[in-house]
Fold:
Amino acid sequence: MYMTCAQRIRYDALDEMAACFGKNLAMVGVELDRPVAALLRPGVLRIAVQLGMERAGVRSVWLDPSAAAEQHRSTLMATRPACLVIETGPEQGPGGHEALLGWYESELNGRLLDAAAATSGELLVPMPRASSRPPRHRI
Structure:
């Protein structure tokens, strides 16, 4: 059993989430040794994504959800990640980073990937561009 302050998960379930994420990175065309950025809060989902990145053989670029968007822009410009993994949903949201996500999509032609969907066993497809996404509460 793996535990954080607020979450508990069995190791086999965490392993399954990580395996799904690693497979889904390949499904959307992320190549070996490419950087993949992630903007996720600490917790089980973040750990599963990290383990999945390691399985997929990509380089992980972690963005601090509490840091300023300008700092993230610099990191994203320097690393040019294949995709940016984010949490979605009204209770999670990108933590006030909507402008950053739109900038990433438009300026770097970046792809946003839903971490929860990618670790759940669903076949992952890139999220729609910011301009076609519903309002914030539905991200």
Q: What stands out?
A: Residues 133-139 have pLDDT under 50 and may be disordered.
